[in-house]
Give the backbone structure.
Amino acid sequence: MSDALGFQPDPVVRTNDLVIGCIGAGMIMAECHLAAYHEAGFKVGAIASRTESKAAAVAKRWGIAKVHATPEALIADPSIEILDIAYPPDQQPALIYAALKQPHIKAILAQKPLALTLADAIALRDAAAKAGKVLSVNQNMRYDQSMRVLKQIIDRGDLGEIVFAQIDMHAIPHWQGFLADYDRLTLANMSVHHLDVLRFLFGEPVEITTQTRRDPRTTFEHSDGITVSTLRFASGVLAVSLEDVWSGPRAEGYDNDQSITFRVEGTAGVAKGSIGWPTGAASTLSYASQTATGGKWVSPTWDTMWFPHAFIGVMEQLQHAVKTGTPPALSVADNVKTVALIEAGYRSIAEGRTVKLSEISTN
């Protein structure tokens, strides 16, 4: 639906009749995927997880008729047309490969990061193409309402030529327990949102410089805690992505000021706003344009939120791709470029230098 200013914060649901099988019963599935699917009227036919009783509890909550004992049993269920995976990234590739062999599964929605290494992500991309299946990656920040409206403002030229952009995060993610087993933390599991959405907004970066330090709150070993990445894009845009996952002490009586803000500056205007995730509020955006608003600040509004409403768009774009035979908006081929950007960031950290994306092969 369009707002009073002509923007479309949320996509129109064009296709919602394919049967979804969900793997995973944690917070992201129970509170985001399934809440969004219920609101959109999507058909969820079955669920499975590592713990059958947990899957059963989530199924009862959301009225899902079938609970499978294992993810493999769900993948083999001939009634499932779309596989929706919310699983640790080290275990996700095996499920994707199993699904690619099933004739009844038409498409797969994978979590990000798609895989722990760029080589694994490329292999998954190529295997999906060979199998003739649609593989999409859940880069849901692209469907945050502020990011969608910002993209529309940029694309219609209201800000002129984009000069500089910044995403400034001071917030504490919920690090899932399985991340303690990996040697990569923030860049792969939090910055991935911001680096991907910067690609969505500005096209392809040509180089990245990333610096990091440990996060004092995270007790398990990690190579990257607080991260700061500077990107230069082919268009000339200079951008900074800051993930301050420390953001200060947290204790009883301490006033919590967690926030994520963004700013985009162009030759004809500026857009700025906030991402509502840390506080459970809707994201915001305001912009002033010499050409579109007479230099006055204008603030589009919406009633929806990143969590859970963005997940409607993510699943809708995949269903619509299957129904129409067109590539999904969140294609695996595009996502491999985001994985390559993360890989370049880790190389920058390891070698203490700016890394050009031309050094990172995606063939």
Q: What stands out?
A: Residues 66 and 161 are 52 Å apart (CA to CA). DSSP finds ten helices and 15 strands in the chain.
